[in-house]
Amino acid sequence: MSNSQAIPGLTQKKVFKIIVLGDSGVGKTCLTYRFCEQKFLDISEATIGVDFRERTIWINNEDIKLQLWDTAGQERFRKSMVQHYYRNVHAVVIVYDVTKPETFHSIVSWMEEVESHGLMNSPRVLVGNKCDCGTPESRLATTYAQRLADKYGMPLFETSALLDSECNTVESIFMTLAHKLYSKQPLRVVSVEGEHSYNVVNLRRQKRQPQPGDSTCLCS
Prior knowledge:
Helix content is about 30%, strand content about 30%. By secondary structure, it is an alpha/beta fold. It has helices at about 30-35, 75-80, 80-85, 100-105, 105-115, 140-150, 165-185, and strands spanning about 10-20, 45, 50-60, 60-70, 90-95, 125-130, 155-160, 190-195, 200, 205. The protein is built from seven helices and ten strands. The protein has a single domain (about 10-200), classed as P-loop containing nucleotide triphosphate hydrolases (Rossmann fold), CATH 3.40.50. α6 links the parallel β6 (about 125-130) and β7. The longest helix has 18 residues, at about 165-185.
């Protein structure tokens, strides 16, 4: 068969790689799962290395594939893979837990890492997750988060991966990036087998056992 002949079963789609960053336990996996599968991930586990999910969306009569790289928040799982995380990244999502101020304070360190890999001019969004947890008084004030988002030129989303009522907000996080990338950024074209809109690749993961004193919040 000559090189000019089409290969049956292969189609070409444009691809965006979006990396999802944040401390361990802020809900990165649940956010990507909610977007790709339109439901909540019931079993809470800690990501080891990277968890990779895909969803194909439709923009301007064109199939666009979003590759979501959900990265481990724990430093011991990141050291050997950090360069692999950032290779060919188009956009960045940084997630914090609105009930845990320490995860919000870590955003500065995550932004330094993003900058060190030359992505400060790439589309980025800040996401405060777990708005279903705690009380309004115990959650980080939106004004503080907005101030930091403005400092780095990022839109801010506050949401919950757990609540079905927040599906539209989770959808908006990734669709906002997709539309921005589609209109402003060059795209990488790859060959993709078949026509499936979703493809989940699960790496080895470590189950997190419930501990005495854990809250009832399941988004991690």
